[in-house]
Amino acid sequence: MAIAVTMTVLAPAVAARADDTYPFRDPALPLDARIDDLVGRLTLDEKISLLHQYQPAIPRLGIGPFRTGTEALHGVAWLGEATVFPQAIGLATTWNPDLMKQVGTAVGREARGFHAKDPANNGLNLWAPVVNLLRDPRWGRNEEGYSEDPYLTGALSTAYGRGLQGDHPVYLQSAPTLKHYLANNNEINRDTASSTLPPRLLHDYELPAYRTAIQADAATGVMTSYNLVNGRPATVEPSLDAEVRTWTGKDLMVVSDAFAPGNLVGSQRYYGTQAEANAAAMKAGLDSFTQDGNNPQSTVTAIRAALDQGLLTEADLDEALRHIFSIRFRLGEFDPPGSNPYAAITPDVINSPAHQRLARQAADEQVVLLKNAGNALPLSAAKTRKVAVVGPLENTLYTDWYSGTLPYAVTPRQGIQERLGAGATVVASEGVDRIALRDVATGRYVTSTGTTDADHVRLGSTTADDAARFDVFDWGQGLLSLRNVATSKVLGYNWGPFVTRDAQPNNWYVQQQFKLEEQSDGTFAIRYAGYETREPWFPAVRYLTVNADGELALGAETAATAARFTKETVRSGVQEAVAAAKGADVAVVVVGSMPFINGRETNDRVSTALAEGQAALVKAVRQANPNTVVVLENSYPTTITWEQANVPAILWTSHAGQETGHAIADVLFGDHNPSGRLTQTWYRSDAELPSILDYDIAKTGMTYLYHRGTPLYPFGHGLSYTTFGYSALRVDGSSVSVDVTNTGKRAGTETVQLYTHQRRSRTTQPVKQLRGFTKVTLAPGQKKTVRIPLKRSDLAFWDVTRSRPVVETGAYDILVGASATDIRRTATLHVTGETIPPRDLRTATAAWTFDDYAGTTLVDTTKAAGTAVAATAPGQWIKFADANLGTGVTNITARVSTPGTAPAAIQVRLGGPNGRLLGTLTVPATGDRYAWTTASGGLRRAAGRHDVYLVFTGAAQVDSVRFW
């Protein structure tokens, strides 16, 4: 979902049942019969009204209001104080499906608790989990997902979804919805960029992330994403009905992302009218329109117009309503009181003691020990008498956009102090500079006047008291937040005045971001670096000025006309942190991200580097105290190459919710032996990363599946305070087993990971691929046999030549170990499967089923269905490998189009894009890429098996091709 909306009741509360004799009220009837009865009683206007996110009450039938979409990624969000579990990426690093289910159960129970408070507004259709694959570490929403791997993502999302919906055979505790279908992993141009997915990438990588939970009946629907997929907006993605709904025998409800239906006519310009857009979305499989917050009018008007124009029929509406009501019935809405056990859940479950304990367990298990040279950790609480806890995150907890409201907060400093007790000393410093900003023109200081919207920041006196002092938090690439010393609130822009109102940067429009830009004369201009848009209502000016009343204003387009300030450093953060670290038994440096600044919805990261100021702090503290531990608290891979080389011990944690400080202390002092494992590859530098818009991980070498370099930390990495030995690897027809022994002196938990590699194949195969994993907890010296299922069908991949899965005959490496690069035992499995026959191009062949390509992209054949290949420049090509031309072909026929008025051509070559030229197919000018025509041309005779290349000489599209 994009933005929060005001939650208001759209209709008065109604009686639970107007007439108990309606068949749809009879739980003894089959569900389909009950749904048909209810849909059949609705008027056309009522049907239309129920297709919006905010479904109104139908008083004459005793039906109450219903709202889709309660956010629940790592706790119930936006409804008030609730248990805040670790971020989704943190939950994933536990590699613990059992724990994931427990957390999901707790979140589902709390959703029921909120629903009991306010049934009309606190809905039970939960928009979680996010299963988008984390194939690029710069994605702004990395914190919301689980993994770069589809198998792991599927296992974890299935567990979380099962917990959310409960185990009852009839009723749902809540209704989980998978986000965001499909291939949504960039925020830049997120509503206009197209994710290009060739067939293998689609079927082997993207679809399994969604399919697993749905096949397991652990999700009740999907949300469509903002982006385009192969040129077509995901809001009208035809695979919703054609593919997704075939994965389960149960009904699914498909919802749009917020305001995405409007994008079809707006930013995407895909349809001319909203009536066409909404009709196409429903035809594709969309059931519920998330548009215009709680105002359904535009949706109602568009659907009514679509009916009047014959674009939709009432039967189309009925089909969508059946999907919607299938979920509402399973939630128990229309059954007698007492029938649904989940309806008895009361608000006292919210942040219950049991959930607090579970939050601490989850926070403990998600911590990843990245490095531990010389057994620097765990610390001895008995021997550690003085600890320096320093860094910008040492005494705060940050929440993210989809977080719930913290009921309490245990910070790192608090957790460490509590663990050490009164007999030890904790010295602390945030390690940030404290500055004062003095206006050059007047000599007066920028000063906070209070903490409300009415208290405008202005120029104050000529001396800098605490109201004129600000602590500077560096979030990288020059981005800063400025916290006022007197108020402890951050400076922010509030659509006109500047105020010190907020405890942390927050909200959809993150207005608490600044840059201090030094000028040639040593003075500074202050650039507002918060939310900006191309909308005409937003000012183009970005620099601060001072108005006639002495208040700060956004009044200059360039630094040249901005107000000038001197920056006076009242206190050096690095010096203060170093002073704290000197003489301490250990220095714990807590650095990381601010979730509303460093990467979030609408904002990809531009770099994977640690913020420059934070990196400098770590180096200074490490030099001052060799016993330095870095705690990296963020939501994504970070290129901490210097830290890995120079700091003895490094822990990673997500923003782990209310129990973060306890979890850090638990791991630092060995009360919890770390068992978290990374779910993404951590690359060594930004230079290894391709364009974030390039989704083809096989060609770009992204993720552990295809990366051939040496990562900073590999997929699956995580250390322990004990060691594990692997022995006696055995492979049979249904599983792989290995003996695992705790060879250290402490009890610990190992995550045993099973990978395979196919040695020879017709196509490019992954370097290795996760096929299963098991967590095993062992006492010192204890040995257990770990068994991981592995079926022959698990080795299947998508055969582009026949458009179906295939298991090839051949030798497969069985790789078992502690990470993708820490393989402890190997074996060989010989599989009898298929040999993919040569491709027969003498039958009509879909062009997008090519084997390789260069420069071309994929586009929609029509707005309703189909995928074609598009070239935009000369020299771009597609390849059909090992094509059988039989006894000889002399002609080519293709379905083609061109976007403009000039003809184009496609060369047919053998062996390579510059290989033997068989002939050239002229593509006539069609003037519209949707205007397809059939073109034929003669070829020099060719026979036998060849790699056939189609090389474009200009902009053209090809949908299918046949040689004869």
Automatic annotation (TrEMBL):
* Keyword match Metal-binding: no
Task: Tell me where in this chain the CBM6 domain is found.
Answer: 843-964
- What Gene3D superfamilies does the database record attribute to this sequence? 2.60.120.380, Galactose-binding domain-like, Glycoside hydrolase family 3 C-terminal domain, Glycoside hydrolase, family 3, N-terminal domain, Immunoglobulins
> Does the record bear Protein biosynthesis in its keywords?
no
Q: Which UniProt keywords apply?
A: Hydrolase, Signal
Similarity remark: Belongs to the glycosyl hydrolase 3 family.
Recorded protein name is Beta-glucosidase
Ranked from the top, the taxonomy reads:
Bacteria, Bacillati, Actinomycetota, Actinomycetes, Micromonosporales
